[in-house]
Amino acid sequence: MDGRLAGKAAVITGAGSGIGRATALRFAAEGAALVLGDLRPERSARTVADIRAQGGDAVAVDGDVAEDAYVRELIGAAVERHGRLDILHNNAAFSISGRVGDITDEDWRTQQRVVLDSVFYGIRAALPHMIGQGGGSIVTTASGAGIGGEYGLGAYAAHKAAVINLTQTVAMEYAEEGIRCNAVTPGPTATEPMLRWLADMPGGAEEFGRSALLRRMSTPDEVAAVIAWLASDDAALVSGVVVQANYRVASRRPE
């Protein structure tokens, strides 16, 4: 690694597994000092331990990103520990399957709080610190479902669409303060939950991967590489962009 995040302080939510964990490891390898959040302390503790074993700087402040008070605490921990916040990666999310007519009020609101509200809370908490220091980079894990919809994921898709719009609005509103705001829409990615879900589907991961632009599943490390680029000064001219990383080109009703 070339150390392009050296001297930068970063916060990552959902850092205990999948894309969040891969991004935390990549950021650390690139030289960033990290404050990591996850709903399950045992998962973030493993990520922190792995980073420290490689000589990196990481601590965990765990909690529920659906709670504004916790997100403020997480952001505050980075500022208190490092005196600044250079990068915020909003990654935490989850989905509940079901056609639109079957979505309950509770399922709709629960997904909204985790998928959309958490991103708003994180950005809102980060902005004053980034403005005060003259800039920063915000990168959010969005979804192709937020661009073209997804069968059986109506609530999740709607909230991810709102995340994309919020990303573009923040990029416009805070450009003069030196803040860049971007999103990534990962295609089918070989995370543990995804692979477990696909294990029971006809054709499994190989067949599902063919729906992606590159006709294969992405790995969490590959997605993390895109996020690290967006977070770094190598992407200094990039803001308000939704990077379609091996975007899924077909969304169809499951067989």
Written description of the protein model:
With 255 residues, the protein is an alpha/beta fold. The protein has one domain (9-189, 220-245): Rossmann fold (3-Layer(aba) Sandwich). 46% of the residues lie in helices and 14% in strands. It contains nine helices and seven strands, in the order βαβαβαβαβααβαααβ. It has helices spanning 18-29, 41-53, 68-82, 105-133, 145-148, 154-173, 192-198, 204-209, 220-231; strands at 9-13, 33-37, 57-60, 87-90, 136-141, 179-186, 242-245. Strands 3-2-1-4-5-6-7 form a seven-stranded parallel beta sheet, with helices on both faces. α2 links the parallel β2 and β3. α1 (18-29) packs across α9, α3 runs parallel beside α4 (105-133) and α4 (105-133) packs parallel to α6. It starts with 8 loop residues before the first strand and ends in a 10-residue tail after the last strand.
Which secondary structure elements does this structure contain, and how are they paired or packed?
Elements: E1 9-13, H1 18-29, E2 33-37, H2 41-53, E3 57-60, H3 68-82, E4 87-90, H4 105-133, E5 136-141, H5 145-148, H6 154-173, E6 179-186, H7 192-198, H8 204-209, H9 220-231, E7 242-245
CATH fold descriptor = Rossmann fold
Succession of helices and strands: EHEHEHEHEHHEHHHE
Radius of gyration: 17 Å
Oligomer: single chain
| Number of alpha- plus pi-helical segments | 9
Mean pLDDT: 92
Q: Which percent range describes the beta-strand content?
A: 5-15%
> Sheet with the most strands?
7 strands, parallel
CATH architecture, by name, is 3-Layer(aba) Sandwich
Outline type: globular
Helix fraction bin: 40-55%
